[in-house]
Amino acid sequence: MSRTLITVLAVFLWCGVSQAGESTAQGSLPYDRFEESSVCADCHTLLSTQYNHSLMAQSFTHAWDEKEYFELAVPHAEKFAKVEGIKAGCNGCHAPLAYLAGDIPPQHPEAGTRANEGVSCDICHSITGFDGEIPFNFNYVMEPGETKQGTRPGRESDHHEIAVNDFLKSAEFCGICHNEQDPFGMWVKATHLEWREGPYGKAGIVCQQCHMPAADGALVEDGDMVPGARQHTFAGVHFPQMTTGAVQILLYPREESVSRGGTVVLDATVMNTKAGHMIPTGSAEERVVWMDVEAIDSAGNHWHLAVDRKGFAGEDWTIADPGALAYQDIAEIQDLQDFEGLSRDGAVPAGDRIFRMPYLDPQGRMTIAQWNTASFGPDYRLPPLKGVNESYTWKLPTGVAPGRVEVTATVYMTRVVSSVADFMGLPEGEKEPMPMGTAQAVFTVN
Ligand code: HEC
Ligand code: HEC
Ligand code: HEC
Ligand code: HEC
Ligand code: HEC
Questions:
Q1: What are φ and ψ of residue 347, in 5° steps?
Q2: Euclidean distance between CA atoms 216 and 125, whole angstroms
Q3: 408 vs 294: CA distance, rounded Å
Q4: Ligand 5 pocket check for 211: Cβ under 6 Å
Q5: Could you report the per-residue pLDDT of 335-387, keeping only the tens digit for each?
Q6: Which numbered ligand comes closest to the C-alpha of 163?
Q7: DSSP state of 330
Q8: Which of 119, 180, 195, 375 holds its CA 20 to 30 A away from the CA of 32?
Q9: Nearest CA to ligand 3 atom 6
Q10: Cβ(83)–Cβ(373) below 8 Å
Q11: Residue 302 pairs with which residues in a beta bridge?
């Protein structure tokens, strides 16, 4: 056999393996190829209850998803050729059943179509692998049908066959939808890539360990006890239980006592101690994570402290400025006249440090439309298990009362920058500040 023929055969066989499964191109798998999650719930009761509370069960019906898709993404796709692919593409991750069925754009959630099932049980349990080198942009390979992809040998069900597939235990499985490249080639979501670069990826601590806790229990109602059954909680920023304590702050005054009118310097070390990726990750264009520092003097007066500048390129984007405007591309998307933009930082107090990576539109302005990102500003987020230092130089105003001064530093997150939440008419909860960590320090004024 000639060398060329061997190579050709090898390539052919390799392709055969990597692309096993059916086509997952838009429109190639009708809705009825997948079972409804409510069917699985008949037997897998607990896992279904957990899953139903997660955002993956609501990835199409959730208010902000519906609004962003129908009021920003679809109109933009219809007028700007560069991003026309998103009209279908958003659904590859958010409404995979509709994407695979070719039901594009899906009807609004109120129509009650199967798009509403979001990332359903049967979608995930039909995935056998991904196509290519990197999992991203819904490059799933699937074998939907009788056989559900599982992980434990020797299990049996009257309802379905079970295939043992270790791919479900990998972080790459999650990366299929948790890494996203936009039409400009920017990594607008890189949760799996961030994880892989960081200490948890290096230690092999996969997403499932934090987002699908292993708890002894049964997989089905009245089933056998299984050690370390993977719970289907998938909790993220919509669960204060996850965000609380995700950030650790230590705060020290350089001077224990200061004379009236003098200057005190406070140092803070901030660390992401709980998340396996950046904080914020994923939808980092819309989450706002910031540190607020406030002092209370012995007379009960409140004083706000502004962060010291470090002087890096693009730092202005990381310090809250109530006068700064952004998101001007909404005017082009929605054909608005006289729209100068929205407040860049929403309700974040002036001078607070914001841990963010700005997503910039083709004109270099911050955007909330991740698909319209042509470049990024500096990456000033909180990497896993890495400290970030901030300092606060405070020249005491004469009004500060003598005696004990208590300083509190708090890191907060809002899911959506408040100015955008108001403009889009989102439920109040989306702009509510959630505390992620706090610290206190004390000094005296003589
Ligand atoms: C009629 C009941 C029934 C229904 C309906 C059902 N299953 Fe199962 N399933 C079982 C039983 C029983 C097992 C084996 C449990 C055991 O051995 O502890 C099982 C096991 C599994 C496993 C493998 C567990 C492992 O550790 O590998 C997966 C995955 C699974 N089911 C997914 C699904 C999905 C997805 C659906 C809906 C599309 C579904 N099941 C519907 C009864 C059911
Ligand atoms: C986002 C993808 C995803 C969705 C949605 C999902 N699963 Fe799973 N499921 C997984 C993964 C991944 C595992 C294996 C995790 C591991 O072992 O590390 C798993 C494991 C399981 C297991 C076996 C657990 C064990 O420890 O043996 C069952 C049973 C199961 N899923 C049923 C369901 C049912 C029922 C639903 C819907 C209510 C559902 N899954 C929704 C990804 C998903
Ligand atoms: C088929 C695509 C898909 C796969 C595979 C997938 N996800 Fe998701 N995931 C999504 C989408 C879409 C959302 C956004 C839901 C929304 O609209 O808020 C999401 C949201 C989440 C959230 C955020 C919840 C919150 O409260 O904000 C977590 C956590 C999560 N996924 C974990 C995982 C893990 C862990 C895996 C792998 C075991 C995984 N996902 C696999 C599509 C997927
Ligand atoms: C060491 C535990 C840990 C690991 C490992 C981990 N996460 Fe997380 N994850 C968290 C915590 C804690 C949060 C909540 C704080 C936050 O928002 O970052 C979170 C948040 C999230 C969110 C919501 C973020 C947002 O701003 O909407 C998603 C999505 C997510 N994780 C997906 C993943 C995926 C995918 C992987 C694997 C590639 C992974 N996580 C690995 C702990 C972990
Ligand atoms: C490659 C998969 C993928 C594609 C494509 C995708 N998303 Fe997402 N989307 C996600 C994941 C995963 C999350 C959750 C990220 C996180 O919380 O960190 C998310 C989060 C969101 C959120 C925030 C939801 C919340 O609960 O706060 C909105 C809104 C959203 N996406 C809209 C869109 C729109 C509109 C498009 C198309 C322009 C799109 N997405 C394309 C995977 C995707």
A1: -85, 10
A2: 21
A3: 5
A4: no
A5: 999 999 999 999 999 999 999 999 999 999 999 999 999 999 999 999 999 99
A6: 1
A7: H
A8: 180
A9: 174
A10: no
A11: 296
Q: Concatenated DSSP letters for 199-237?
A: HHHHHT--HHHHHS-EEEEESSTT--EEEEEE------T
Q: Is the CB of 237 under 6 A from ligand 4?
A: yes
**Which among 31, 36, 40 is the best mutation to test ligand 1's pocket, defined by most ligand atoms within 8 Å of the CB?**
40
pLDDT band for position 434 (50/70/90)?
very high
Q: Whose CA is nearest to atom 30 of ligand 3?
A: 234
Ligand 2 binding residues, C-beta < 6 A: 37, 40, 44, 47-48, 51, 56, 119, 121, 124-125, 150-152, 168-169, 173, 208, 212, 219, 226, 229-230, 232
DSSP string, 69-114: IIIIIHHHHHH-GGGTTHHHHHHHHHSHHHHHHT--SPPPGGG--G
Angle at 40 between CA 53 and CA 172, to 5 degrees: 70
Rounded to two decimals, the pTM is 0.96
Report the alpha-carbon distance of residue 173 to residue 360 in Å, rounded.
29
- What domains appear along the chain, each with residue ranges and CATH number? 19-230 (no CATH), 240-445 (2.60.40.3880)
Residue 362: asked if its preceding bond is cis (omega within 30°), the reply is no
Is pLDDT at 181 greater than 90 in this prediction? yes
